[in-house]
Amino acid sequence: MKPATIRDVARHAQVSVASVSRALNGSDTVTEETRKRILESAEALQYVPHSGARSLSTSKTNTLGIILPDLYGEFFSELIRGMDLAAREHGYHLIVSSSHDDADGAAAAIRSMRGRVDGLFVLSPQIDSANLATAMAGRLPVVLMHGGAGESTLPSIVVDNNGGAHAAVDHLLATGCRSIAHIAGPAGNLEAEARLAGYLEAMAEAGLEPHVVEGDFNQGSGHASAQALMAAPRRFDGVFCGNDMMAIGALLAFQEAGVRCPEDVAVVGFDDVPIAALVRPGLTTLRIRIAETGRRALQRLVGQIEAAQAGREATQSSSACEVVRPELVIRTSTRASVSTTRAADGRPSGVTASAQGENQDG
Amino acid sequence: MKPATIRDVARHAQVSVASVSRALNGSDTVTEETRKRILESAEALQYVPHSGARSLSTSKTNTLGIILPDLYGEFFSELIRGMDLAAREHGYHLIVSSSHDDADGAAAAIRSMRGRVDGLFVLSPQIDSANLATAMAGRLPVVLMHGGAGESTLPSIVVDNNGGAHAAVDHLLATGCRSIAHIAGPAGNLEAEARLAGYLEAMAEAGLEPHVVEGDFNQGSGHASAQALMAAPRRFDGVFCGNDMMAIGALLAFQEAGVRCPEDVAVVGFDDVPIAALVRPGLTTLRIRIAETGRRALQRLVGQIEAAQAGREATQSSSACEVVRPELVIRTSTRASVSTTRAADGRPSGVTASAQGENQDG
DNA sequence: TCAAATCGTGTAATCGGTTACATGACACAC
DNA sequence: GTGTGTCATGTAACCGATTACACGATTTGA
After folding, report:
1. pLDDT tens, A52-105?
2. pLDDT, mean of residues A275-290
3. Backbone angles phi, psi at B143, to 5 degrees
4. Which of A126, B133, B265, B295 has its CA at a distance of 20 to 30 angstroms from the CA of residue A332?
5. Is B77 in the A-facing interface, judged by CB distances under 8 Å?
6. Which residues of A98-126 are buried (b: 16+ CB within 10 A; e: fewer)?
7. Is A90 in CB contact (< 8 Å) with chain B?
8. Any chain B CB within 8 A of the CB of A271?
């Protein structure tokens, strides 16, 4: 038993398909009486319009595609959530496509989106601008959101990883650290490389010698890298980690080894994932308002789509690269000496002071 | 400049559209020579097939819909991730639709999926079976995944919340707790209610008096609820929390108040979100393998779809309700003196047996 | 009273594919 | 030479909507 089509409804209501379409969509010119009859027929037949067919004739899908990297975690999930929230407001659906890890796979994923979406988010770093151009023959509206997208001429939103890394190092310096190590993200990852570069620059500016070990952005590698640092002859009193998960792994490693944080070593992460506020000590990190960034991205894409289907080229501003500047969030993993002194005043421990700070965050 | 269509390619290669379609899709009977010519033309014109049009004629979208509740967090994100991973393997895309929080909105979201998807996951608890039936006039293959879905005759995957709650209470009893409080999830939430019911049953079986405060599944409410418990005259030595986030909030509240965990009070959560292993003390909780559950759900739905389009009705097994049994993961938030657990082994109750069942299933 | 404007409705083309069936060429067997 | 079978290819119907345009009926104005 096939679902009813618009023709079934038309037959049942004894009108033409055109009238049914008119009655069901915008209120074109239809008599109140026939409209009523049509609605009753639609109800009786449990008619539900076929979105695919509608898209074909209107060439509007009300759907946006997201090209994801091969593996993604908390960060992208949260980003998608932010996009989804905004998408609903704008009347759009979201369709996700995990691309393969090579450029060809990603290009194929993009192509498979044709006729399915009105616009595309590309979060997959495998796609460079050249590939992108050939991949989307139909030149869909696009918003790029992978590290290094800023170099493209396409509209994009990128995180200021370099600036964030600078801020992290500067903060460690300000709290008195003199020997700052860096647990880097995986080589080849553009975000990781930008953060590493920022660290190296900031260290050079401060006239300090850099000290880098490489992780893979996962908690386990943070743990291992911290152990490697402790095993090495070189001393350190501060660690800037490429992301929060590695920082948390490092915190646990220090804790296990009896190295106190922040007294013996201060730790800074990157991203401000929800866990960062919940571990002890609370993790000082660079906050990216992920969901909000997702929302902004969606608005940009929708703006582009509307501009494209109405006027001419999109507005000038919409083809620009938008930069999200991470914000330093100071927690107890780098408690400045000033705060520590204050916590010591009268109270039995600094725990209370730090805990209060966290509550405000949460 | 419109993207090239199949007719453009046909014209360019001087063949009919049928040949182009045949050449590009399965290798029907096409001369190697014409195929080559067609592929070259497609390349030259940067032809990309229009998935929407293809779906219309094949009535196959290779897309699955997910009807989400109004607000969703880490749990659903992880579930979607698991589904996505599996979807890729099966050649499907995923389209998400956040429904509104009322039943009408959810029904509308389901209807808007017609012609867009080959099957549907319903994670939105607002939809009861009756609404669902009317909402999907076209009777799409469906997998239900909200609490209470077990009562429906439709295929579903549900978490054994009740059993999990039992296991939590039993574990607390086994570690020596005598006065166990429960921080419940929000009233009206089916998962929360099932966990509460399990707690009440287990307490009744143990001949203990229950002690319940209500939270809302967020960390903040766990914090507040724990403070409320401490402020109340009634003493307690164990807390079973409706989910991990509230448990973590409670842990922080106890820490701030100088109440030691697990010495003064033992805490158990539910879900085993990634943070649970990273807080200190590590949170004892009931693990749900979220991503794996998502993968299973996807396989079920795909199985249904394939059965529907090939043979007759789906297999008997596929219309059953599948139960995911949470697995008790013991960490330091509950003192896991093994001897105590062993001692429980001797008791006539089904407690230990059920706990073993959990482990095997997980 | 007749032409023009207005208005509700129907007819049929269209979106971009897939595919059942028709066609025509060629080979082979009698 | 004719009939038959095979095989590559073309023609056109279809999927289920939207919508430009046509049409007939009614109203309006001179």
Report:
1. 999 999 999 999 999 988 777 778 888 898 999 999 999 999 999 886 667 778
2. 92
3. -125, 120
4. B265
5. yes
6. bbbeebebbbebbbbbbbbbbbbbbbbbb
7. no
8. no
**Interval B212-229: pLDDT, tens:** 999 999 889 999 999 999
- Residue ranges with strand state E in chain B: 63-68, 93-98, 119-122, 142-144, 156-159, 180-184, 212-214, 238-241, 266-268, 285-287, 321-324, 327-329
* Residue in the block written with tokens 């796609």: A127
CB-CB neighbors (< 8 A) of B74 in chain A: 74, 77, 274
Cβ neighbours around A362 below 10 Å, total: 16
Q: Are A171 and A283 in contact (CB under 8 A)?
A: no
Domains, chain A, with CATH or none? 6-49 (1.10.260.40), 61-159+291-324 (3.40.50.2300), 161-288+327-361 (3.40.50.2300)
Q: Distance from CA of residue B282 to its chain's centroid?
A: 24
Mean pLDDT to the nearest integer, A3-25: 93
- Record: contact A48-B223, CB cut-off 8 A: no
Is the CB of B60 less than 7 A from some atom of nucleic acid strand C?
Answer: no
Question: Is cis: bond before B49, omega within 30 of 0?
Answer: no
Chain A's closest residue to B70, CA to CA, is: A85
Closest CA to C15 C1' — which residue? A57
Percentage, residues of chain B above pLDDT 70:
84
Of A54, A63, A88, the CB nearest to B98: A88
Closest CA–CA distance from residue B177 to any residue of chain A (Å): 26
8 A C-beta contact, residue A241 and residue A269: yes
How far apart CA A7 and CA B55 sit, in angstroms, is 19
Q: For residues A135-143, give the mean pLDDT.
A: 75
Task: Report the gap between the CA of A74 and the closest CA in chain B (Å).
Answer: 8
For B275, name the nearest residue in chain A, comparing CA atoms only.
A275
B52:A49 CB<8 A: no
Helix, strand, or coil (residue B170): helix
Q: What is the pLDDT of residue A343?
A: 34
A275 vs B275: CB contact, 8 Å cut-off? yes
| B111 contacts chain A (CB < 8 A) | yes
Compute the 3-state secondary structure of chain B and give helix, strand, coil in percent, each to the nearest 5.
50, 15, 35
Contact A48 B137 (CB under 8 A): yes
For residue A181, the cross-strand partners are A239
CA of A30 vs C1' of C1, distance in Å?
31
* CB distance A287 to A327 below 8 Å: yes
Position with higher pLDDT, A14 vs A189: A14
